[in-house]
Amino acid sequence: MQALVLLVSFFACTVGAICGIGGGIIIKPVLDATGVADVATINFLSGCTVLSMTLYSVLKAKVSGTSTIDPKTDTPLAIGAAVGGLAGKELFSVVAGLFPDPNTAGAVQAGLLLVITLGTLVYTIYKEKIPTLQVTSVAACLAIGFALGVCSSFLGIGGGPINLVVLFYFFTMATKRAASSSLYIILFSQATSTASSIVTGGYVGVDLMLLAAMVVCGILGGIVGRKINSKIDDRTVDKLFMGLMVLIILINAYNIWKFALA
Question: Which keywords annotate this record (predicted)?
Fold first, then answer.
């Protein structure tokens, strides 16, 4: 089972680095489906893996001079996402506490992920026909980043496709530019969320050997994903992204069924 978890982590972070979706949108539902751990532990494992990949990808792009980050837009988005990441973590704790069975919280996450992923797929298919905006206000960027941070942390996905849709629509970004910005945003939101989990003891019960191995797989995925991203165009990234959305929709549909029966 651990070999499967590591393979999923590597694959998720590879395509996450290519498309800018982080990887948690794949790791989280797949680990939920395998039942390798409880929902909260999976959130922590997924978050740390995604954090390692995004940290490598952002730093590597900066050092190599290939970074397309615009500090005027992306930094307020990232700061807002960092604060939103903390709020989303608290929101998940509140929602999970409403149900006697932790599996119910997992079902809620899976249902929301299904809806968001389906909406993202539809938007991506028709995005060329949808008018977009060009937001420049720092306050608006902070607010948008906050909303992204809340969603990603609550769902335990570190970022995911919702980042790309928001960047497409509100900032008229090209696909690969949006992927770079998304990883930067995910880095901030996931860093605060993971730090909060460590401070509050959210790592208790986590298999540290498995965690370390998943982090290594996350970094390796980031290395491979960056190399592939540099060799393909926006259209190819879009096709890969849409294929992943279909796969994630199917996995989340299974998870809703699985948690409902648990």
Answer: Cell membrane, Membrane, Transmembrane, Transmembrane helix
**What's the total number of domains in the chain?**
1
The 3-state secondary structure of the chain reads CHHHHHHHHHHHHHHHHHHCCCCHHHHHHHHHHHCCCCHHHHHHHHHHHHHHHHHHHHHHHHHHCCCCCCHHHHHHHHHHHHHHHHHHHHHHHHHHHCCCCHHHHHHHHHHHHHHHHHHHHHHHHHHHHCCCCCCCCHHHHHHHHHHHHHHHHHHCCCCCHHHHHHHHHHHCCCHHHHHHHHHHHHHHHHHHHHHHHHHCCCCCCCCHHHHHHHHHHHHHHHHHHHHHHCCCCHHHHHHHHHHHHHHHHHHHHHHHHHHHHC
Range of the domain at 56: 2-261
